[in-house]
């Protein structure tokens, strides 16, 4: 059904019928329930915290192993955007995702897939463009500089790809990388059972 057809159908309903349709949609679809709850009582901070937690759980879960699923993070950002939040909150969530991707690429080079690398480069470019267009540089400048300071630690390949649209340069004195690559330790790869022998 097109939007025009839906609009025509809804315009023919009286208030009671329209209310009944909305209640049925509310009860039958989780996504609709969330949207209507937010529409009736918008709490942008709570919604942002909820979707940020989804992304953080993928990369830094409190229990279990990190799954780092791109599809889950993309869906979280898309679902948050359907609530029509402010551009600032939208940029905040996108930056959270980029930060977690770059931290993963730096700290876990052996576990970093090509899809993670491509996703990080694409999402960083998209987010920087969004922040520039919406004139949010002042609000997110420090976080962007921290990302820029982290990129050299992710390897030359990524740094070269990003240099086409994002200058890493020398960070300000008070800016520190989000993560740095640690030297690989042989002992790290020894099982706990064998480690007890040392």
List keywords for this structure.
198 residues, mainly alpha, 10 helices, disordered C terminus
Q: Please identify the structural class as seen in this structure.
A: mainly alpha
Q: Which regions have little confidence, pLDDT < 50, spanning 5+ residues?
A: 183-198
Q: Please give the share of residues in helix.
A: 55-70%
Number of H- or I-type helical stretches: 10
Describe this entry's structure for a reader.
- The radius of gyration is 22 Å and the shape is elongated.
- The longest helix has 21 residues, at 87-107.
- By secondary structure, it is mainly α.
- It is built from ten helices and no strands.
- It has helices at 3-11, 15-28, 30-40, 44-59, 70-81, 87-107, 114-133, 137-150, 156-162, 192-195.
- The chain folds into two domains: 1-41, no CATH class; 43-195, no CATH class.
- The termini are far apart.
Helix/strand layout:
Layout: H1 3-11, H2 15-28, H3 30-40, H4 44-59, H5 70-81, H6 87-107, H7 114-133, H8 137-150, H9 156-162, H10 192-195
Helix pairs in contact: 2-3, 4-5, 4-6, 5-6, 6-7, 6-8
Question: Could you write a compact summary of the structure shown?
Answer:
This protein has 198 residues and is mainly α. 65% of the residues lie in helices and 0% in strands. It folds into 2 domains: 1-41, no CATH class; 43-195, no CATH class.
């Amino acid at each position: 059904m097109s939007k025009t057809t839906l609009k025509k159908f809804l315009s023919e309903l009286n208030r009671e019928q329209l209310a009944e349709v909305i209640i049925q949609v509310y009860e039958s679809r989780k996504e609709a329930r969330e949207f209507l709850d937010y529409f009736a009582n918008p709490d942008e901070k709570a919604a942002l915290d909820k979707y940020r937690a989804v992304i953080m759980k993928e990369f830094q879960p409190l229990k279990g192993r990190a799954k780092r699923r791109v599809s889950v993070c993309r869906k979280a950002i898309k679902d948050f955007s359907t609530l029509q939040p402010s551009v600032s909150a939208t940029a905040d969530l996108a930056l959270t995702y980029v930060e977690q991707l770059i931290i993963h690429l730096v700290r876990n080079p052996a576990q970093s897939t090509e899809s993670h690398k491509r996703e990080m480069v694409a999402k960083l470019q998209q987010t920087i463009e969004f922040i520039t267009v919406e004139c949010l540089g002042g609000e997110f400048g420090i976080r962007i500089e921290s990302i820029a300071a982290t990129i050299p630690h992710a390897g030359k390949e990524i740094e070269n790809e990003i240099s086409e649209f994002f200058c890493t340069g020398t960070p300000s004195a008070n800016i520190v990388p989000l993560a740095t690559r640690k030297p690989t330790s042989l002992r790290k790869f020894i099982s706990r059972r064998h480690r007890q022998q040392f």
